[in-house]
């Protein structure tokens, strides 16, 4: 099974890790493929090549965690399921804020080898802030993924829309019990 978990900065990595564990397939994160030292992004040609290589390295299945709309043609070419975490604005904002504060306090490197970590200045005083990104993109992401639900180009892909973390828990339990036979989950 090949799964892409998408949504606005709220729970993608946690859910992807859980799915990877219960299905016994690799968890691939887009952020470490994209971000380089000093918060420099990878040029698209190199980023796309890294993504292709990561997906090709797991031909029997993967759980891909991340949005990066410009990678859609690559990541959705062979995907079986898209799980859209469509949580409410205030939940996403609260989770993003709490995560940012935890990361600022811990000073933990976000992606090994990059030296990138959250800082008070970057989080609260910069337009490059993940909080700013969430505030300015939450609505457009919601519109885009809703449009994908009804887009004929994606009819071959199972798109599962989850609106609460409880639904994510139900999906993980369902997949843990039934493997890749997704049937009709209770979400």
From TrEMBL:
<protein>
    <submittedName>
        <fullName>DNA topology modulation protein</fullName>
    </submittedName>
</protein>
<dbReference type="InterPro" id="IPR052922">
    <property type="entry name" value="Cytidylate_Kinase-2"/>
</dbReference>
<dbReference type="InterPro" id="IPR027417">
    <property type="entry name" value="P-loop_NTPase"/>
</dbReference>
């Amino acid at each position: 099974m090949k799964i892409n978990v998408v949504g606005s900065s709220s729970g993608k990595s946690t859910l992807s890790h859980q799915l990877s564990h219960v299905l016994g397939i690799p968890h691939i994160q887009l952020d470490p493929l994209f971000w380089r030292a000093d918060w420099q992004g990878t040029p698209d040609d190199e980023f796309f090549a890294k993504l292709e290589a990561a997906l090709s390295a797991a031909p029997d299945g993967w759980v891909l965690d991340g949005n990066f709309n410009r990678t859609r043609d690559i990541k959705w070419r062979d995907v079986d399921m898209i799980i859209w975490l469509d949580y409410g604005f205030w939940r996403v904002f609260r989770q993003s804020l709490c995560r940012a504060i935890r990361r600022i306090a811990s000073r933990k490197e976000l992606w090994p080898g990059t030296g990138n970590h959250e800082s008070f200045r970057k989080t609260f005083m910069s337009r490059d802030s993940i909080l700013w990104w969430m505030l300015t993109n939450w609505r457009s992401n919601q519109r885009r993924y809703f449009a994908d639900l009804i887009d004929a180009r994606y009819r071959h892909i199972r798109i599962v829309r989850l609106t609460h973390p409880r639904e994510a828990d139900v999906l993980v339990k369902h997949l843990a019990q039934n493997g890749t036979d997704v049937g009709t989950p209770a979400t």
